[in-house]
């Protein structure tokens, strides 16, 4: 019988050397005043646990993905070296490793890991996976990333769109598996994924995504989606109910009642009171 504790680890080309130096913080400057900063270097995994993208308009954590009823899980992102940023400062290559500590019945700890190669747009904070760790071995040539195998990557190509993710997830009838599958695709974090696919252009799909997360017990993730949608689509009636349900599950009763009340009022205006779930009035009372 094994107990598994999963840990996101993002390591750079120089992570082993950095681990010995025990750095306190690092920062990479991007185009138009953007930056990627990192703190909390983990010597055990040779990478950073606290990474943030910043621009003049927004700032958000990356690779910080809540799980279940917990606000966040540990994450590590290492210090990219000087060759990781493109000559035009628009893209940054990052090696990401998903590592797990497996503890057997005798107390022996075994660490297993899987490494990937990602690219972040320093213009928007959008992160896309471009393949295995081997894809991070290469050089920049004319603002294009050329791997050691001679492959060039077109970073304008998108990752899996919200519509495609929802379409794939809808085929899975098991709620937790569906939420877990979606969560795996949003390894970069909700804010970064939304930087790739703006919510104002994908309102319905994001609402479904939040609902699927909530069905699988991923209420923190669901609220990250709902909070952004509530800004761009404040009058969307089903969204109010979905947000209220997740807030209630998280124990945020007063906030939940606010959205339950707004949902109730909106449904009454539409003469659809008969379709209001019984829990709405029960929780408001």
Automatic annotation (TrEMBL):
Q: Which UniProt keywords apply?
A: Signal
Q: Entry's InterPro entries?
A: TPR-like_helical_dom_sf
**Residues in the signal sequence:** 1-21
Protein's recorded name: Tetratricopeptide repeat protein
Could you tell me which species this protein originates from?
Pseudomonas shahriarae
